[in-house]
Amino acid sequence: QVQLQESGPGLVKPSETLSLTCAVSGYSISSGYYWGWIRQPPGKGLEWIGSMYYSGTTYYNPSLKSRVTISVDTSKNQFSLKLSSVTAADTAVYYCARSLDAFHIWGQGTMVTVSS
Amino acid sequence: QTVVTQEPSFSVSPGGTVTLTCGLSSGSVSTSYYPSWYQQTPGQAPRTLIYSTNTRSSGVPDRFSGSILGNKAALTITGAQADDESDYYCMLYMDSRISVFGGGTKLTVL
Fold first, then answer.
1. Distance, CA of B64 to CA of B60 (rounded, Å)
2. A46 and B96 in contact by Cβ < 8 A?
3. How many helices (H) and strands (E) does chain B have?
4. Considering only CB atoms, which chain A residues are within 8 Å of B46?
5. Residue A53 above 80 pLDDT?
6. Rounded to an integer, what distance in angstroms lies between the CA atom of residue B106 and that of residue A71?
7. Around Cβ B41, how many Cβ atoms within 10 Å?
8. pLDDT at A55
9. Cβ-Cβ contacts under 8 Å for B90 (sequence gap 6 or more)
10. Any chain A CB within 8 A of the CB of B2?
11. I want to staple A60 with a disulfide (CB 3.0 to 4.6 A). Which of A37, A47, A65, B75 is the partner?
12. What are phi and psi of A115, to 5 degrees?
């Protein structure tokens, strides 16, 4: 059974970099699929942040591209999100997910608040 | 930038049928966008219902079905139940594997 679990600081200061990790169990990231991040501000809809193919190719939301980096650590079977220069507008629940033709498997999500 | 459009809200009676749609601000939705649908209840992660236009995810009841209706993707719930009351999001794959979610539809069953 494939499971994804997000982790990282729940509070980040404005202008700093948000860093989250998604640990994958039950499947080796390097075996296939796309691995992505989606966020949801409080009371609002879902927003795709970006995805990474298992080979390392990345795809980013054009509106966030200048601030986003998604990377993988195959030795730990996890992938990461870095979002730089955060503001209050980046406050959201952040989900990691596995995808191919859709996002099929989701993590439970982690709340990140941007505040001083 | 292309916007994916959904009805903000919809209401259905228990046992009734409702069709939610997913369109584009410019152009028509086709199967080449690989439309998918997600159900989300408060405080929970989204649950995948439909992918590749009309394929149900494992464990999804057959009262949920997906299709293309005219120039939009559609999610039809036949025989709505109380626990279908949720937010529903569609997602489309654009060029270069850019994913775009619709704004979501809040479905009320009453």
1. 7
2. no
3. 0, 11
4. 46, 95, 103, 106
5. yes
6. 34
7. 12
8. 87
9. B4, B6, B20, B22, B35, B36, B37, B38, B73, B75, B101, B102
10. no
11. A65
12. -160, 150
The answer to whether A45 faces chain B, any CB pair under 8 Å, is yes
pLDDT at A54 over 90: no
Candidates B37, B97, B100, B105, partner chain A, best to mutate (most A CBs within 10 A): B97
Range A16-35 average pLDDT? 96
Q: In this structure, are residues B36 and B20 in contact, taking their beta carbons and an 8 Å threshold? A: no
Instruction: Tell me the one-letter amino acid at A22.
Output: C
| Dihedral (Cα; A33, B91, A40, A23), 10-degree rounding | -10
Residues of A65-103 as b/e, b for ≥16 C-beta within 10 angstroms?
eebbbbebeeeebbbbbebeebeeebbbbbbbbbbeebb
Residue B1 has pLDDT above 80, yes or no: no
User: Is B89's CB within 8 Å of A46's CB?
Assistant: yes
Cβ-contact A2, A76 below 8 angstroms: no
Tens-digit pLDDT profile for residues A86-101: 999 999 999 999 999 8
Per-residue pLDDT of B20-60, as tens digits, reads 999 999 999 999 999 999 999 999 999 999 999 999 999 99
The 8-class DSSP code of residue A109 comes to -
